[in-house]
Automatic annotation (TrEMBL):
Belongs to the glycosyltransferase 25 family. InterPro entries: Collagen_mod_GT25 (IPR050757), Glyco_trans_25 (IPR002654). This is Glycosyl transferase family 25 domain-containing protein. Keywords: Glycosyltransferase, Transferase. Transmembrane segments: none annotated. Residues 294-473 form the Glycosyl transferase family domain. CDD domains: Glyco_transf_25 (cd06532). One of its GO terms (molecular function) is procollagen galactosyltransferase activity. PANTHER family: GLYCOSYLTRANSFERASE 25 FAMILY MEMBER (PTHR10730:SF53), PROCOLLAGEN-LYSINE,2-OXOGLUTARATE 5-DIOXYGENASE/GLYCOSYLTRANSFERASE 25 FAMILY MEMBER (PTHR10730).
Length: 534
């Protein structure tokens, strides 16, 4: 009798028609499975695992299936996953690690589907190591959808030549417009299966399970065919972007660098890396380099420590070895420099003379030019503390510099970032034989530029302190490309050989009309020249 009661009680609990007791949330968070395919992904693991550890879903309701397809030569994915499993097993319903080559037909998706069905999971999320999730609430939202198959949008990191996970010819903006759910013709990882739906029992990734199937044995193509023949619609949920995609066709080192630049963008936008790292698998910082320059300067005001912190974070994650140059503060200009404004200068937009902030900005750059000439540095990179570098910046800079040496290009200054003026683009022409290098016309900004020793000498030879204009007006004047002839004719030596990289690799953190934009030059008092007492 006792044995019968022991066996009968669990059955009664399962079949009970009464609502769950207070505190029982199992009906809100059904048991589910996450299956992840990993190759050489050690660079992304600290953040992928950090997302799993911090996802807003009860861990004891989640099975994790991790599928490895690595040879161990390129990185340490296998070792990191084994270590993480040992540290995290108690948090989850289960963690299983599978070697792809040991699976029948190496079909990890079919193995995962069968495994989830055997465990009576309500939902199955397929994930790929090329994708980095960013939304900790994603599971809670997507698991409450009623469709059998749902994909969601991924975006490529800023400035990254990637793709998003819906292979459609329609423009992304059109895909994201309209209702939340849109029916689509095909899916790619990641996506969700609702295994509680009766229709999902007919879905498969194995061509042997589909009658008269003669198509490609690609698991995804088999899956799409099985859905089509059974009339099961496929949907994309456009209500939220869930993360970023790094295309596997790119070389591994490029994908690693793309992740670093994505992290740098997060630091710019959120003052820190806004996606959590795993508690047990930490991300190593790259070794710092100067990327072909003798020095890399970052100009920063002492009273802007928050900007310095952001730039320090950027330098850490992308591996940039830089020196911080304390900017000359327009609020406390030094008396050691005799300054005289160009009499005819008035700001073209606001019709005013220079501000204290513009004078301080000019002197900050001027001091770098002086230091470069006195120390004999042959080539350096200057960045202001609101510089945002794009993915692939140093690859393009390296290719440009390599070709410039081969073609013996005698350059003085190369814009890394600038504000183009559409009416002055006639001088923008490719330099023959040099990747990414163009001649340049009148431009604004000094957010980032490369400078040679000869270029620094040309800038000093113009004697700008005797007839000062804002620094971003001064550069095109000394390069003899400024549209204001009156200003330009005030300077005799206009020998700066100026170019630009194209496409640009440096942009400001924020533009004038964006929230959080701050200007220490525009939002400053008008400069009043000091006059010696009689």
């Amino acid at each position: 009798m006792i044995l019968l009661l022991v066996l009968f009680i669990p059955v009664c609990l399962c079949l009970s028609p009464f609502p769950p007791e207070d505190g029982d949330v199992r009906h809100l968070y059904p048991q589910s499975t996450i299956s992840i395919l990993l190759g050489s992904h050690s660079h992304i693991l600290p953040y992928l695992l950090g997302w799993i550890e911090n996802v807003e879903y009860p861990k004891n309701r989640l099975h994790l299936n991790i599928y490895l397809s690595v040879d161990g030569k390129e990185d340490s994915t296998r070792e990191q996953i084994q270590w993480w499993k040992g540290q995290s097993s108690s948090l989850f319903k289960s963690i299983s690690i599978h070697e792809i080559e040991k699976l029948e037909g190496s079909n990890w998706a079919e193995h995962s589907l069968n495994n989830a069905r055997q465990r009576q999971s309500s939902f199955l999320l397929f994930w790929n190591g090329d994708d980095l999730p960013s939304n900790s609430r994603f599971l809670t939202k997507i698991f409450h959808q009623s469709r059998p198959v749902i994909s969601s949008l991924l975006v490529s990191p800023p400035s990254y030549r990637g793709r998003w996970n819906i292979d459609l010819s329609t423009d992304l903006l059109k895909i994201k417009s309209g209702t939340e759910l849109k029916e689509i013709d095909g899916v790619s990882f990641p996506f969700i299966l609702n295994l509680d739906k009766m229709d999902s029992a007919y879905l498969t990734f194995d061509g042997g399970n589909v009658r008269d199937y003669e198509g490609n044995e690609s698991p995804l193509e088999v899956f799409e065919f099985s859905a089509k023949v059974m009339g099961i619609p496929l949907f994309v949920d456009r209500s939220l972007d869930i993360g970023w995609h790094f295309h596997s066709s790119f070389p591994l080192e490029e994908r690693r660098m793309s992740l670093r630049f994505l992290l740098a963008d997060l630091i710019v936008d959120h003052s820190s890396i806004s996606i959590p790292q795993s508690r047990s698998v930490r991300a190593p910082l790259p070794q710092k380099k100067k990327f072909g320059f003798e020095k890399i300067y970052v100009i920063n005001l002492r009273r802007r420590p928050e900007r310095r912190k952001i730039m320090e974070g950027i330098c850490d994650v992308i591996g940039m070895d830089c020196e911080f140059m304390e900017a000359t503060d327009g609020r406390s200009l030094p008396s050691s420099y005799p300054l005289t404004q160009l009499h005819s200068f008035f700001d073209p937009s606001s019709k005013r003379k220079m501000t204290n902030g513009e004078v301080g900005c000019f002197l900050s750059h001027y001091r770098i030019w002086e230091s470069m000439v006195s120390s004999g540095v042959s080539r350096l990179l200057v960045l202001e503390d609101d510089a945002r570098l794009v993915d692939g910046a140093f690859k393009m800079i390296g290719e440009m510099m390599e070709d410039s040496v081969k073609e013996r290009i005698d350059w003085g200054l190369i814009y890394m970032g600038r504000k183009r003026t559409p009416q002055h683009t006639k001088k923008d022409m490719w330099v023959s034989g040099v990747r990414h290098l163009s001649t340049v016309g009148y431009s604004y900004w000094t957010v980032g530029y490369a400078l040679s020793l000869d270029g620094a000498k040309s800038l000093l030879n113009g004697k700008p302190l005797e007839r000062m204009v804002p620094v971003d007006e001064y550069l095109p004047i000394i390069a003899n490309v400024h549209p204001n002839l009156e200003w330009m004719n005030a300077f005799e030596d206009r020998s700066l050989r100026m170019f630009t990289i194209h496409p640009l690799v440096v942009y400001p953190h924020r533009y004038t009309n964006e929230k959080g934009h701050l200007s220490d030059t525009e939002e400053s008092e008008i400069y009043i020249e000091r006059r010696e007492e009689l």
